[in-house]
Amino acid sequence: RRKIIIDTDPGQDDAAAIMLAFASPDEIEVLGLCAVAGNVPLSYTSRNLRIVCELCGRPDAPVYEGALKPTVRPQVTAEHVHGRTGLDGIELPEPTMSVKATHAVDFIIETLRAESAGTVTLCTLGPLTNIALALEKAPDIAGRAKELVMMGGGFFEGGNITPAAEFNIYVDPEAAKTVFASGMPIVMLPLDVTHQLLTTKARVEKIAALGTRPAEVLVAWLAFFERFDIEKYGSDGGPLHDPTVIAYLIKPELFSGRDCNVEIETQSELTVGMTVVDWWHVSGRKPNAKVMRHVDADGFFELLTERVARL
Ligand code: BDR
Ligand code: CA
Fold it and tell me: What processes does the entry annotate via GO biological process terms (predicted)?
């Protein structure tokens, strides 16, 4: 059973990831969930995170609030994809559970120091601001995490917020640079993987057929989330990015990739936030991440559906 901390900016696809984690107690123990500014401002990501916990029947889950904005740059948000609240798609009651008083950055540091070295996995579903701030404040934690598994970046597939950059990395490229330079073992789930995971009608119908309240809410969220890609690109659904992080922990055999060096562009106006992945090992730079490229898409959706049924 893996102990994990989820750092997130919900986000409908973040919500699906959190649901997958809570529905998998045999494989995953959620030590805490941290909100970060990203898809929408922190006040909304914190609220949304608590809505998801309550939907999963986990109002007891420890929720922490982290960074209000990126480490260096002004905040960039993605209401064009996720809606005004970040979790548009269905009217739900405001959450009643509370947020812990500890700052998310301190929770991350304290947990990595308190638990045995090499036992806690950091799961990041949004910009890397909280993790970078924790690494700057307590560099020793780099050697204590088992792994950092992130949804972020893109290489053969290009970017989704600029031609070169994926949203999570683009929002706080300086933070991403700190994380990739930290020496922490990193697994990266880029757009190259997540763009293979479209919420097609057939797949969403299987979730809807579960007939439970969590399934019904998830389907409403996905219907909102996918409309951006369907309207803009005429695709068969939306790319389900963030649940890849949790699916990787449960069934790593669904994914394949390579150890590569990854550097983050922070200077060029045109390509800021780009993940420069040395897939062909041409640079001679040392690999610092396991970069995933392929996924068994049907296996992924089967897993998600089977687990959501348990909520
Ligand atoms: C990432 O950006 C966000 O909009 C999604 O939640 C996901 O984490 C995809 O680029
Ligand atoms: Ca996200």
Answer: purine nucleoside catabolic process
**Residue 73: helix, strand or coil by DSSP?**
coil
Rounded to the nearest 5°, which phi and psi values hold at 123? Answer: -110, 115
Query: pLDDT of 200-219, one tens digit each?
Result: 999 999 999 999 999 999 99
Cα–Cα distance measured from residue 236 to residue 92, given in angstroms and rounded to the nearest whole number: 27
Active-site residue, selected from the candidate residues 195, 241, 281, 294: 241
Alpha helices of 27-128 — where are they, by DSSP H?
A: 42-55, 79-82, 104-114
With the C-alpha atoms ordered 114, 115, 118, 123, is the resulting torsion angle positive or negative? negative
Cα–ligand 2 centroid distance for 55 (angstroms): 18
226 and 238 Cβ atoms separated by less than 8 Å:
yes
The whole-number pLDDT of residue 22 equals 98
What do you get for the CA distance between the two ends of the chain, in Å?
19
Which atom from ligand 1 is nearest to the alpha carbon of 78? 4
Between CA 76 and CA 81, with CA 79 as vertex, the angle to 5 degrees is 110
**What does pTM read for this prediction?**
0.98
Q: DSSP letters along 207-267, please? A: HHTT--HHHHHHHHHHHHHHHHHHHHH--SS-B--THHHHHHHH-GGGEEEEEE-EEE--S
Q: Which atom of ligand 1 is nearest to the CA of 166?
A: 10
Torsion of CA 56, 168, 34, 13, to 10 degrees: 0
Over residues 79-89, the pLDDT tens digits come to: 999 999 999 99
Q: Is 270 exposed, middle or buried (0-12, 13-18, 19+ CB in 10 A)?
A: exposed
Under a CB-based contact definition with an 8 Å cutoff, are residues 190 and 152 in contact?
A: yes
Q: Which among 72, 122, 103, 118 is positioned nearest to 264, based on CA atoms?
A: 72
Tell me which residue of 181, 157, 194 sits closest to 266, measured CA to CA.
181
CA-nearest residue, atom 4 of ligand 1: 39
